[in-house]
Amino acid sequence: MSIKESIEKKLSDAFTLSHSEVINESHMHNVPPGSESHFKLIIVSDDFDNLSLVKRHQKVYKILAEELANGVHALALNTLTIAEWQKKNNQVPESPPCMGGSKK
Known about the structure:
The chain has 104 residues and is an alpha+beta fold. 33% of the residues lie in helices and 19% in strands. It starts with a helix and ends in a 17-residue tail after the last helix.
């Protein structure tokens, strides 16, 4: 199972998802082709109701602790309730280009 598939499974097991996307953005960074080290996550769930952004992110980090300890270098987290997602017209900002390593 790929890291992306593992993340998708763990998120679907942990949350009642209205929408989710696990986007491998490793190609935007100074890593070998085919790497699974940088991900953007869009997680839409009313499980985030009444939770601060910090608490939402802590929940995700706890669920993905194994991946973070074994090769995942970065997570861009978009953790939204259904109402927040709708207010954003079902979109999140594009990730900026990498400015580190040989990508400068």
